[in-house]
């Protein structure tokens, strides 16, 4: 996995359950950056729900979907695993594995119903768990007078700028993380707001994971 690339993934391992026409669909997610980890997770969930009607799954490894695999696990061909993999790819999630466990409730869904059920299971689980963007950001500091604090806090919040610290001394010193491409616009906005040049100092850089607020989970 390249450390130089930004990508989307799930916030953390987690589960979400849907009841569709009396069938239980349990989607279990994990972050997996190797085929071995993905296969181990599939085995773990399949063992946990060994009494289920089906344990279908899909995974994608690598920033270019270098290794992918999907299994219908006994469901009609093309109605489960491939559907789950397509859902992952439409959401542009990387290095993830999803296992969707089904406990049959007695009502047949038909091929179209199964496709919708497995697709929704994946997207709803991703939505419940959360999606993050992993990005390389510069660590910056700048100071302002106390009487501008509310204004600057509002601006940073409205523009989703990651503030890691506020130090209250003679002035208020902000420490924040910003992508390279956003530094110049940020500096211009702050200069405009404060009616004067802002002394932005770069003190380092690191990869951060930013929780996304707006993701099209139902693009498919």
TrEMBL record:
Pfam families: DUF1949, Impact_N. InterPro entries: EFG_III/V, Impact, Impact_N, Impact_N_sf, Impact_YigZ-like, Ribosomal_Su5_D2-typ_SF, UPF0029_Impact_C. GO terms for cellular component: cytoplasm. Residues 143-197 form the UPF0029 domain. Residues 21-125 form the Impact N-terminal domain. Coiled coil: none annotated. GO terms for biological process: regulation of translational initiation. NCBIfam families: IMPACT_YIGZ. Belongs to the IMPACT family. PANTHER family: IMPACT FAMILY MEMBER YIGZ, IMPACT-RELATED. This is YigZ family protein. It comes from Lactobacillus mulieris.
